[in-house]
Structures are given as C-alpha cells and as structure tokens.
TrEMBL record:
Chaperone for NapA, the catalytic subunit of the periplasmic nitrate reductase. It binds directly and specifically to the twin-arginine signal peptide of NapA, preventing premature interaction with the Tat translocase and premature export. It comes from the Bacteria. Belongs to the NapD family. Signal peptide: none annotated. It is found in: Cytoplasm. Keywords: Chaperone, Cytoplasm. It comes from Thauera sedimentorum. The lineage of its organism: Bacteria, Pseudomonadati, Pseudomonadota, Betaproteobacteria, Rhodocyclales. InterPro entries: Chaperone_NapD_NO3_reduct. Interacts with the cytoplasmic NapA precursor. This is Chaperone NapD.
Amino acid sequence: MNIASLVVRAKPEHFALLEELYRGIPGVEVHGRCEQTGHMVVTVEDGEGYATTDSILAVSMAEHALSVTLAYEYTDEGLELQEA
C-alpha cells in the first residue's frame, strides 16, 4: 500500500475545475480546500493497474495547479523484511 497527501496551490476560481480533473485521476481524492489561502488537500492511494507516482505527477501537471507540495507519504512495501 502506498498513500500520499498533497497540498495543491491554485486560484480559488479554478478549484471546481481542478476537483473535476482530479476525479478522473486514479486513486485521487480531494479532502478539503481553503479559498482564502488558495490551498486544496488531496490524497493519492495506489491501486490495481496504477501507481501513486503516476497519479501524483498527473495532479501536479493539471492545468491551473500552481504548485504541489508532498506533505506526507506512507508505504508498507518492504516491511516484511524488517526484523523485530
């Protein structure tokens, strides 16, 4: 499992368009937005047939996304190799 949390900076007048675009990207979900600061909180989760890295790239390359910051990332890959 791979999960990432992103903060997207955009002009508030483009929030609706960005949310619509993000709905079409696999594993992407918009959780909140602040029109006063121009920030959106987005999560990306991997799934069958796509990787979080591809979805993160699609979020950051979306038209009207001014910047994207990776706020949190989690993976459980390789955990079975760790000793207690």
